[in-house]
Amino acid sequence: MPTPRESKLRVLIVDDSSFMRMAIRGVLSRAPNVEIVGIASDGVEGVEKALALKPDLITMDVEMPRLDGISALKQIMAKQPTRVLMVSTLTCEGAKATFEALEAGAVDYVSKNVSDSKDAQSTFQGELLSKVREASVSAVPKKALGIERPRIVRPAEVRPSRFAHRKIGFVGIGASTGGPVALQEVISRIPVNFPHGIVVAIHMPKAFTGPYADRLNARCSLSIREAADGDIVRGGEVLIAPGGRHTAIVRQGNNLVVRTSPTTEHPQYIYIPSVDHLITTMSEASNGAMLGVILTGMGNDGLKGMKHLKGKGGVTLVQNEETSTIYGMPRACIEGGVADVVLPLEQIGFEIGKIGS
User: Fold this and answer.
1) How does pLDDT run across 209-222, given as a tens digit for each residue?
2) Is 7 helix (H, G, I), strand (E, B) or coil?
3) Structural domain contains residue 55
């Protein structure tokens, strides 16, 4: 969020629940450098106030009367692109709506988890402040972020893989804020006959990773599903690390196998599921014969894993600043000297797809 010398972050709250409006306002009003400039009780009023007040950030409920949050979001993005943080329920339906909102231009989402429980209230407050802080430094959307189908590449455009002379048998990918849309862009450009197994760690709650994997599977040519204990990492398949736990990759005979564990077993990792843990264990299990990829996200999760991978002789690729929603995770790898290749988002999937072809 802005420093004390900067102007305050101007926030508009849009929610049909008076309880949620009060809860969000209560949390953000106590945050330094945040100013609540308006409150709206439905999507119609939300669009009107967004256009009139021109806030820096909008918190937007999904389910509202007159005009739902996604429809309101699309109108705002068409008329006056603004950073929007969706407020979503921790359900399968909430997950589906959230991913639709992210594709329509929302920066991120926060889980609606407020009850009489002090633990639940504390969790919600912490997540809301964290997500607002992250959203405040994200790129302002220029337009709705619909996913295009992979374009046809003419033979003259096809260049040899940058990793043609490197031994690569597996791919590990990490992402956070902006990651759901970015990962779909990457995976959608990898051909169905891709010979290497892919494992992904993306910071998501438990209720979201399954529906997200199903959504990707319906939209991409590769086979994609949520990972489970004992799954073998196979060519042509993408495994999404389950939310709420940490995922490691271990060697079992000739195979690389998924092992999940409770977060209490790895208290050193702040982000869940941990990208560092996934890439570190995967580089060990593959003896460095893998490509590590870091996409958009806040913080530096993935840096330690990529360092470990480089130490094992593996290769690394990160998203560039211009196409990152938040440049934190890629920048940490670049500044840490562990990025072999830096590419814009639209080229990453193509580059991965050329490995082993």
Assistant:
1) 999 999 999 999 99
2) coil
3) yes
